[in-house]
Structures are given as C-alpha cells and as structure tokens.
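pinging the channel bc i need a second pair of eyes. not urgent but kinda urgent?? the chain im working w is below, pasted from the shared doc
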Amino acid sequence: EHGWLLSPRMLGGEVARLESRCEQLAGAEEQPTKQTVAKELGDYLVFTAFHPGYRAYYVWLAMQQQCVSPLSHQLERAVYHYLHRDYLSTVHLLLPFIDGMLRTHFRAHNPTATGPLHYGPLRQFVRTQRAVQAYPNRHDMYRNALADFLDNWLFANVDPNVAHANFEVSYLNRHYAAHGLGSGCYYRPADCHRLFLFIDLYMEMLTLETGIGMHLFIPDHEPQVNRRIEYYQAHACADHASEDRLFVESREACELAAWRPT
C-alpha cells in the first residue's frame, strides 16, 4: 500500500520498532496521509537500503547467481551513482536490471519458451510456487510480496483508459520512467531505496531456490565483499555538494516548466 518492502537482513530491534510504529499509525484517531506514512516507514528502512555492507553483499550475491551474474555490473554502477547522490541515474540503471533479472530467471525455468515475453507472464512467474532448497514458507512470503510490488508499482498499468497506477506516494513505475510520461519525480532517495529493497528480497528468494548465499551474516571472509565495502564507504563519505547543487538546479527547472504530455 505504501510502496515498501522489508529486508530479511533487518535486525530484530529494527523490525520491532517498525512493527510498533505501524500499530500506532493504524490505531491513530486521525489517520495521517499516505505520504506521511510512506515517509515514516522509509525512515525505518533507510539504514538497510543505504548501508555499504548490504550494498556490497547484494552486488556480490548477484555475481554468484547464474541467472543474474551477466547483469551484475548494472547493479554495481547503480550503487556507485546512488552513493554519489545521482538518484536519477540510479533508478534508470536499477529498472532495466530488475527487468533483465526477471526475464533471465523466467528463462532459466522455462528454457523452451519462445516469442516475446510480456509483463503478464513475468508477474505470474514471480507469484508461482517453485522448488526450493530450504524454507518453503519463507519463499512463499517473498514471492508474493515481490509480485504485489510489481502489480502495485513497477508494472502497474498507466493507461488512463484502463487503470491508473497509484502515484499518490511515488511515480516509481517502469512505464512512467521509460516512456517519459510526465515530470513527476520517480528518482528521489526513497525511490532508490524501494528498488534496492526489491532487489535484496529477490536475491534472498533466489538464494532459497539455488542454495547460493545461505549466509546468516555478511560473509567477511569474501575478499570481493570486503573490497566493495571499503570502496562504497569511501564514496558514501565523500563530499558531493557540487553535484547536489547541479541536481537541485535541474530539478527546479523541471518543476518550473511543469511539463505534461499532451
């Protein structure tokens, strides 16, 4: 409803605080707006989405998964742009990465499938029960949450003659971004966090299917993970003030134009 996914890597205390706040919001006499709730939930999830250790781990895990490894360089570049606060480029790298990940995963399970692969079969595939190496109940929960996110956000129909995607919280939608359907912002930090959390959960789902990446903690014995943690931390702590100013200027120009398709 609010465009967020939980990460399986969240610590117990973080989950408990988030659950407590959700209960408070649900029981409030005066219900806050969806934008307010979405922002509050995002504040609880930003640590997991931003943390260089988690970003390094999931890039490394993408390199290990056979159906995702050919695309892992796109995820790596997205992390680089994100740490440089270039959120527009981040989203435009993550969306095709997700698209490609879905398609290669589908093809791995349907090697004889022919013809163009549309979004309906992809959505159905994500929701379909598949063989797993461990924790089938957890896999069921992951795949349904991911499919709901695709239905409600990334793949939601934006045709005004059919249905409207819910842009009340975010314009984060694959069609909106790819086809330049308006000037609504789909590339804020929160939108990047949503996409990272989607990818994180998808990777965890793949782990249950393949058995690759069954780590309780981030594996500190993996040199590729450690090198990326150090690299990402250095970029996260760098001064990007000049880049921020340029982004604000271009964003203000977009809002001033208030462009809408005719």
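so The CA atoms of residues 63 and 74 lie 11 Å apart. and Confidence is low (pLDDT under 50) at residues 254-262. — does that match what u expected or am i reading it wrong
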